[in-house]
Design goal:
Blueprint: H1 2-7, H2 17-28, H3 50-62, E1 69-71, H4 84-94, E2 100-103, H5 109-120, E3 125-126, H6 129-148
Parallel strand pairs: 1-2, 2-3
Helix pairs in contact: 2-3, 3-4
Length: 152
């Protein structure tokens, strides 16, 4: 996803030490696995739970250096539940000034239903990380165009 963003001209920022420290605190509390990556791109691994995604997203949405987030929850991870889309949507509504997109790979019934639920909740969901990255670049370019004409 980061490679796709960068190949299309987007900047994948380095997370501040404060943001990385807050993510490491999640590790210390056992919310995210100890093998998680807290640099950008953040990776809470295939051992993640709903709490790992929600609390990590909260930190990223609060980080001043982050302008948008692509969440890749992978519906087949054992620790994730069908409640995750609703929980992520609640975080996005609460901290709603940055775009959040979802990529959930898989064309099976559950993967499609997962993406549809995100869409119903107002969070665009894509079947590949690359498509989510292309959409994020589109949002960036749209925002830049609005700023150029003084609409933002």
């Amino acid at each position: 996803t980061a490679d796709e963003l960068e190949s299309r001209g987007a900047v994948v920022v380095q997370l501040s030490e404060e943001t990385q420290s807050r993510l490491r605190e999640l590790m210390d509390r056992g919310v995210i696995p100890p093998i998680s990556a807290v640099a950008n791109p953040v990776d809470v691994t295939g051992s993640a739970t709903d709490d790992a995604f929600v609390e990590s997203l909260r930190i990223l949405l609060d980080a001043p250096e982050v302008d948008g987030v692509i969440v890749l929850p992978l519906h087949h991870v054992p620790g994730l539940t069908s409640d995750l889309p609703d929980r992520i949507a609640a975080e996005v509504r609460e901290r709603g000034d940055k775009p959040v997109l979802v990529a959930d790979i898989g064309q099976g019934e559950y993967g499609i239903a997962y993406r549809e639920r995100f869409d119903e909740l107002g969070i665009p969901a894509y079947p590949t990380p690359e498509r989510a990255a292309r959409a994020m670049v589109g949002l960036i370019k749209y925002g830049e165009a609005l700023r150029r004409v003084g609409a933002l």
